[in-house]
Amino acid sequence: MKFLDIAMDYAKSLTADYADIRIQKTTSEGIYLENTSFKHNNLNLIYGYGIRVLKDGAWGFAHSNIFTEDAVKKTTKQAYDIARLSATLKNGAGIRLANEKSYIAEYKTPLKIDPFKISLKEKTELMLEISKKMLSYNQIKKTMVYFMTQKDEKLFASTVGTRLDIQTTFINPVFVAYASNDNDTQSRQFNEGGKGIGWEWINNLNLIDKADQVAQEAIIKVNAETLSEEKRRTLILDQIHLGLTMHESVGHPTELDRVLGWEADYAGISFATPEKLKNYKYGSDIINFMGDNTLDGGLATAGFDDDGVPGQKWYIVRNGILNEYGTTRETAPFIDLDYSRGCNRATHYYDQPMNRIPNLYLLPGEKKLSLSDLISDTEEGVFIQGQGSFSIDQHRINFQFGGDYFWEIKDGKLYRPLKKVLYRSNNPEFWNSCDAICDKRFWKPFGVINCGKGQPNQTGRMTHGAAPSRFRNIRVGGSK
Questions:
Q1: DSSP track, 376-402
Q2: Which of 72, 207, 250, 462 has the highest CB neighbour number within 10 Å of its CB?
Q3: What is the distance in angstroms between the CA of the first residue and the CA of the last residue of the chain?
Q4: Would you say 99 and 338 are in contact if contact means Cβ atoms under 8 Å apart?
Q5: Measuring CA to CA, how many Å separate 30 from each of 58, 188, 382, 451?
Q6: Domain ranges in the chain?
Q7: Taking a C-beta distance cutoff of 8 angstroms, is the pair 145, 125 a contact?
Q8: Residue 157 in contact with residue 295, Cβ under 8 Å?
Q9: Contacts for 91 with CB less than 8 Å, ≥ 6 apart
């Protein structure tokens, strides 16, 4: 598109040290049903461009949705002027970008069926079937079904010569059953997070069968008992649950901008500071966390980030030791790195990119081990499935997590269902207590589409993954 060249040529004529432009069209659809009542359908289109200029060690950023030569030049000049003014307030030498080559490339999420070509009628009929299946049980008093689909089309150019054409698509189906008895109401949900894929994923999920299971488990949960007082117990956590735990206690603490203290007011800084690299025991020897922006179906898999850096795969924690961070061209030089791991992403065209969690996952165990083996090898403990409430402090150290479905384990067997279970721990106690991880047969991803960060807030997305894992001697109890 000619506007890419217009912006970059004009930025060079203004003597910008670096500049880039991101033309982005975001199309999203959300469909919401409550019981069998169609509540709303939102189809949104957000289209425009954002221009960044680096001058004298400071950024300027401006955006517009007017596509004319004059408007593009005006927006470029605005970004340039902001950068020059910002440079008068910078600390020290200011910003230096890590080296990066130029690329001319395309990327498109692999999909067989475009979800935007599925009619609203077909989508809502499936959602009604899901809801009716759950409501067929007398104790299910309310249901919620939500489908979201989003497509991002980006054209990117920079003054280093990069030209990118990127199109990503994801789907996120969620449904919840609420069961009631005379004393309580409890919910059970289906939520595997979003996935970068087409409608063929929905066709293969067997959602009606899963709705039946969700309803039955909601009824079991509402009639379950609670735990006694909090005490040290063994925990077995499923893949979906671990997605949120690693997001909060590993993903955010290893974003380099947070480590540097740039992100503080909104969601805290990080305890995992640079002097801990290569020596801090983040977890037990079997703990290996990968950053992987090449992961198939990953929500952070887009070929390149918004710096024009290609997707990569690297160890964030290796054999229990803090190994590396998620970095950008801007943040990496602050710890003397001259390369970026490609973690700079923005939500919409009017947002300035920021350091984001990559696709982050826990590697499966090397020894052959199933969930059944793990349970049979546990004398007493609690098995948690799915995600619930969470809380973590401003340094990402102390945390508390709930869950969605719980079983008490006794003598190597699932003994009785539970409800209202919470556990409390901290970094590094929690990850160092992990003594067993199931093998690759049981590894499963979980997508996050609503990761909030920044002021003004942006919503990021990424994928986590794990196999069921066991943690010893964790404080576990019941809430009221």
A1: HT-SEEEEEES---EEE-TTS-EEEE-
A2: 462
A3: 59
A4: yes
A5: 38, 21, 36, 17
A6: 2-222, 231-478
A7: no
A8: no
A9: none
Q: How many residues would you count in the chain?
A: 480
Which of the 8 DSSP states describes residue 238? -
Cα(79)–Cα(99) distance, integer angstroms: 22
Q: What is the DSSP string of 249-312?
A: IIIGGGBHHHHTTSS-TTT---S--GGGTTT-B-S-TT--EEEETT-TT-TT-SSB-TTSPBP-
Q: Is it the case that residue 140 has pLDDT exceeding 90?
A: yes
Alpha carbon dihedral 267, 268, 269, 270, in 10-degree steps, equals -90
**What is the rounded distance in angstroms from the CA atom of residue 341 to the CA atom of residue 321?**
19
Q: How many CB atoms lie within 10 A of CB 45?
A: 9
Residues 282-308 have pLDDT tens digits of 999 999 999 999 999 999 999 999 999
299 and 170 in contact (C-beta within 8 Å)? yes
Provide the whole-model pTM.
0.96
Residues 147-200 have pLDDT tens digits of 999 999 999 999 999 999 999 999 999 999 999 999 999 999 999 999 999 999
Residues 6+ apart with CB under 8 A from 205: 173
Question: Which residues, listed in sequence order, are joined to residue 52 by a DSSP beta bridge?
Answer: 20, 61
Phi–psi pair at 345, nearest 5 degrees: -145, 145
Residues 6+ apart with CB under 8 A from 272: 253, 254, 259, 280, 282, 322, 325, 396, 427
| Residue 466, SS3 per DSSP | strand
CATH of 2-222, one of 3.30.2290.10, 3.30.70.1320, 3.40.50.300, 3.40.50.720: 3.30.2290.10
What token pair was written down for 475? Answer: 């404080």
Contact status, residue 261 vs residue 427, Cβ threshold 8 Å: no
